[in-house]
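Structure representation.

___
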Amino acid sequence: MKNTRIENNAIFYSMNGELIRISSCGENTIRFQGFPGCRFIEENYSLIPGQCEVQIEESEKCISLQSGKLRVILEENGKTAYYYDDKKILEEKPEQNFGYGFHHYTNKGSGLWNARVTFEPNDGEHFFGMGHSWDNPFDLKGSSIDIVNLNAKCTIPYMYSSLGYGLLWNVPSTGLAELSHNRTRFTSDCCQAIDYVIIGGTPKEACSILADLTGHAPKMPDWGMGFWQSRLRYETQEELLSVARRYKELGIPLSAIIDDYFHCTEQGD
C-alpha cells in the first residue's frame, strides 16, 4: 500500500495530513495512534507497552497487523477494522461522504488539537466500565459519559464490550465518550494525538492485560485490612480524638479514622 512503511514491528501510514501508527503493546493488544499534521510524538503517558511477536501482511489496498488472536486491517482511506478470532468486533465509521474522514481534528494552536474518532455501532452490543459516577447505569449502551474527574465522579477511560474486547482511551485530557445506538465515539478536548488500545479476550483476560498496561495495584498494607471509622463529619480535632479514645476504652481495634472534608484551617488547604 502506498505511503506505508514498517518500522520496529509497527505500521506507519500517512494521508491527508495525518500520520497513523499501528503497533502492539503485548499479545492480543493493538494500539492505534493518529498524529495530525504528520507530527510523530513518542509518548506513552501512563501506558506501559510490552513486547510481542506480530504478523504484518501488506497488499495493494490495505495492510494488516496481528497480535495473538487480535488483528487490525488498515485500508488506504484510513479506516481500521478489528477482528478477534477472525470475527469483526469493531470498525471505524466515516464522518464524510464516500468513506472518508475517520479521524477528526480541530487545531487549537500551540501544537494541540480537539480530536475524535467514531466507530460503527453493533446490534446487541453492551458496554461496561468507564469508572464510577452517581448517574451511570450498569449497561452503558445508549449513554454519553463525560471524561472528567469530579467530586463523586471518577472516570476511568476504559470500557469492555460484550463482543469480547476492551478499549482503553489513552489520551490525558477531558473529553466525551458517546456509546449511542447510531455510533460509538471518543472525543478529546485538547490533545497531541488520538491514542487508543484495543484488548481482545474475556473480561478476566482483558482486565489482566489492562493491569499489565497501566500498572498493578500495590498490596494492601496489614494496617489497612482492619476496621476503618468514618462519619460525616468531625468538626473539631477534639471531637475526632474523643471518638478514637472511646474505641480504645471499649477495646475495639481501630485501623484508621477518616478525617473528612472541612478539616483544614483554610478552604483549599
User: Anything to note?
Assistant: The longest strand covers residues 29-36. The CA atoms of residues 86 and 116 lie 27 Å apart. The mean pLDDT is 94. The first helix runs from residue 203 to 214.
